[in-house]
Amino acid sequence: MHASAIATPAAIAPVSLPVSIPVRELLPWAVFGGMLLLLAIYFVGVEAGAMAVFNTMYVHEFVHDGRHLLGFPCH
Ligand SMILES: [Zn+2]
Asked: Which superkingdom does the taxonomy of this entry point to (predicted)?
């Protein structure tokens, strides 16, 4: 039998080391995700009437249930 065919304890239960994620690499993605969340909150909560970016009611109607669910004033 070849030596590599023998199961070693490491092969049965491999040791998994935690992956360290540096904050400097994580920060731009956290800022990007935060901006996306702020944009989503804007479209759910404010996008209507005088504050509207788009001149139609499609965005407002699309997020209307979420608007009421989150307690934003609506109608
Ligand atoms: Zn409403």
From this structure: Bacteria
